[in-house]
Amino acid sequence: xxxxxxxxxxxxxxxxxxxxxxxxxxxxxxxxxxxxxxxxxxxxxxxxxxxxxxxxxxxxxxxxxxxxxxxxxxxxxxxxxxxxxxxxxxxxxxxxxxxxxxxxxxxxxxxxxxx
Length: 115
Hints:
Helix content is 10%, strand content 54%. With 115 residues, the protein is mostly beta strands. It is elongated, with a radius of gyration of 18 Å.
C-alpha cells in the first residue's frame, strides 16, 4: 500500500527500505581513532519502483510527489504500516514501451524521505 496525502498510488513493484542515522554536528573521529558524537534521530527512506504504468498512472504519481512535503502511508518491510511526513526525490523513468497500443512507463522510481 502506498498513499500520498489523499491519493492512493499504484502498488509498487519493489521498495528498498533504509533507516538513516542523523548525527550531531560534533560527530567525527578523534586523533586516537575513537568515534564521538550524538545520535539525534533515525529517519526512514523508501526507494519505490513501480511496475509498468500507463500514462494516466504516471501522471497520478507525478502529481502526488510534486509537493514540498506530504503525509505518506506505506507498507513497511515487516508488513505493517508506516505513516511519515516526507519529501520526495526526483522521479525517474527508465523508458517507454507500447503494448496493445497503450503507452507504459517502465521502472518509474522515486525516493520518499522522512522529514
